[in-house]
Amino acid sequence: MSNALLVLEDGRCFVGEPTGSVGEAFGEVVFNTSMTGYQEILSDPSYCGQIVCFTAPQIGNYGVCPDDLQAERPALSGLVLREPSPVASSWRAAGSLDKWLCDHGIVGICGVDTRALTRHLRERGAMRAGVWSGAAAGTDELVARVRATPPMEGRNLAEEVSTSRPYSVPAEGESRRSVVVVDFGVKRGILRQLTRRGLRLEVLPATCTAEQVLDLRPDGVVLSNGPGDPAVVAAGIEAARGLVGKLPLLGICLGHQILALALGARTYKLRFGHHGGNHPVRDERTGEVWITAQNHGFAVDPGTLPAGAVTHVSLYDGTLEGFDLPDRRALAVQFHPEGCPGPSDAAAIFDRFDALLEEA
Length: 360
Description:
CATH superfamily of the largest domain: Class I glutamine amidotransferase (GATase) domain
CATH topology of the largest domain: Rossmann fold
Number of strands: 19
Radius of gyration: 20 Å
Strand content: 25-35%
Order of helices and strands: EEEHEEEEHEHEHHEEHEHEHEHEEEEEH
CATH class of the largest domain: Alpha Beta
Structural class: alpha/beta
Low-confidence stretches: none
CATH architecture of the largest domain: 3-Layer(aba) Sandwich
Shape: globular
Helix content: 10-25%
Number of helices: 10
Mean pLDDT: 96
């Protein structure tokens, strides 16, 4: 097929060529500003229900490597590229990106003016879209099909990407403590950051209860990243509410939002979200600035948190990026301290959590 089409819910169309699997895909289209790490992005469960537009002009030049996958299978709906690389050149490459996309049924479109699409999304906000292989022109029927798909608000996608059954991950080297990870769409990079600190992990489904967590007698709990609207992850919020104050807690991305909701705070939808590896975040206590990896479309209203809880703020738009409640042994960050892809400035968050376990 020589043609492909991207249709936005506001009626704007972008014509390109097919890449990856042939077919059709629907989801919320968002742009990611990372320069590298396309495989980690594509395999991040937090992109469930979304079509990812890469702002980097060429994607796929170093192929794919199994060690870089952040989940067993990708969860995103589709992707948009300016130019797919014609070669995969890396000593680590186990295959090409295009073949990996085809193997996993990911529908994509290339040859698109991704700068124009990104500017459009910045001005109008993230919106629903559809990708069609073989379509040459937009029609009212295609726009109607896009508008018939569910918006991101109100979607509980965490339970779709979560593990269906508990599993264990051994510590690297000597096992010092045990931690329960509540899987709302956890990235393997988060698990590696924990295990390399001597923590053995019990990973539980997103629907687990506080009682099930406490029955394992862990030294602490991590509420993981994940996709969708945090306000409707009822089981996760209820579980977090039952764990606050009973043992050390670390919330990451969606876990940050769920922990905030459990404390009585509110969340809201961002205009076009934060997706990329170049987001500056300031620690309000020290003035230190980290360059962070981020992937989220919702945020926590800091005014609804307990007084004095805010620790980190985005230097892009002033939104909340972290909070800490020492008296309840709970801390949370909106960014991804594990990177994957980088940067790794914020990995010290895992050391802070490890210190909480030590204190406990």
